[in-house]
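Narrative of activities, Objective 1.

The group set out to show that a structural description can be obtained from nothing but a protein's sequence at a throughput compatible with the screening campaign. Below is one input-output pair from the validation batch, recorded exactly as produced.
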Amino acid sequence: GTFTNRTGQERCDPCGQHTFADAISATACKTCPAGRTAITGSAQCAPCSAGKRLNATDQTCALCAAGRFSAAQNAAACTPCAAGTHQNATGRAACLPCIPGRANNIEGRAECSKCETNTFASTPGATECDNCSVGQETPDDGGAAACFGCDLGRYGKRISQRSGGCADCPNGQL
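Output recorded for this entry:
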């Protein structure tokens, strides 16, 4: 990974990015072939690893952005995460399923959205949150994996055309 092109030099210089020196006493660095790259001071070139894409213009490796992934070496492009999955970190080889209580129906998302109040997602990888039935509800902060029966002092009520829920009993009634 080092070279010297001057006599009497005390130390060798490291090869620059995208170049390598694979021999002792190298007098020059070699350029990595197409589809391979090297970091500064490398003795060999390597393919872009999973989680990165190969930049065709300068043959460098670039990290996949959040919401995208590459599972193979030397990927030409990073793939958007499918609906029901997400990836909030850069440079990843896979996406993660949305956890129960969260859903995502859009490709390429870095995060899954928390289910709203009186909706739920019970399984990992949900693309939509389901509505609670009349007489069931979720905590007010949302993000529920299931709906629960109305508490004492509350009764089943249709909250909207699509969603059920619970409401407080009027004074003097249980």
